[in-house]
Amino acid sequence: MKLLRTGKVKQVYEVDEGTLEFLFTDNISVFDKKIPSQVPFKGETLCRSAAFWFQVCRKAGIRTHFTELVPPNRMRVKRVEVIEDYDKINCSTTNYLIPLEIISRHYVAGSLFDRIRSREIKPEELGFSPNHDVKYGEKLPQPFYETTTKLEKVDRLLTREEALKISGLTEEEMNRLIEMVAKIDDLIASEVEERMLIHVDGKKEFAFDDHRRLMVVDTFGTADEDRWWDEDPYANGECVELSKEAVRQYYRGSGYYNALTAARKAKGAEPDIPALPADQIKKVSDLYIEMFERITGESFR
What CATH number has the domain bearing residue 75? Predict the structure, then answer.
């Protein structure tokens, strides 16, 4: 097979003209930085988690690009064209990756909370009353959807008009895409609630097939792409992170994140991200295995 692309955590190979194979490595990245550490079994847990959700979607009648799992850490998918020049995409283009990421949020967490505190986002935009004092961890009155770029060097938030312009989507297709995200999130919430998990937020990507039918692509519903909380501590007011967010918190606590943020604001040289200590590697590996089992209900071994 021919290696086509190497990302921070995934390699993409060409199987044949219409098929790609994803290899999920044990690499891990945060803040757009690849950590110089390997996390044992991470790639396998993500691959198998993603395959699980594709099969859930298939049973629900949602079209995907997934074709088969190649144990332990590879999967094969239908190939679509990646068109980086937005001007070459229009409302009749077929078989291409839609250059957008759709972020769906169900609770106040992460960067959303930061933007609320900085007043970039007002409470009423989220469905709260205008004078509501938004707290971290609150369940949103309604799902909050945002769209970012997918193929640019740094993801940027888009207005609906901008998203339509660069993606080749019609208004009706955009509506159907959001409806598909909502349906998938309902499936996720229904599946994991019996294992005491809260699906906080996540991102999804889409493509059109040869007949310009929407299909969900890449991966979603894993400990990398989505945020999860433990239901029991949450009932007592505590948001226990059960995703890659736990790694981000480690680097925030170590002081690295502040140093990186300062360098980026000053447009200076960015500090190299240090490796994870051995005890953290073991902790993170155990977390990914635990999350595979809680997300899917399957035994890792």
Answer: 3.30.470.20
Q: Residue 301 falls within a domain, yes or no? A: no
Q: Which domain holds residue 63?
A: 2-296
Nearest to 204 by CA among 228, 223, 180: 180
pTM over cut 0.85:
yes
178-190 residue pLDDT tens = 999 999 999 999 9
Q: Count structural domains, the chain.
A: 1
pLDDT in tens, 206-221: 999 999 999 999 999 9
Q: Which amino acid is residue 85, in one-letter code?
A: D
Residue 149: strand pairing partners: 100
Q: How far is CA 37 from CA 1, 25, 274, in A?
A: 27, 11, 9
- Identity of the amino acid at 178: I
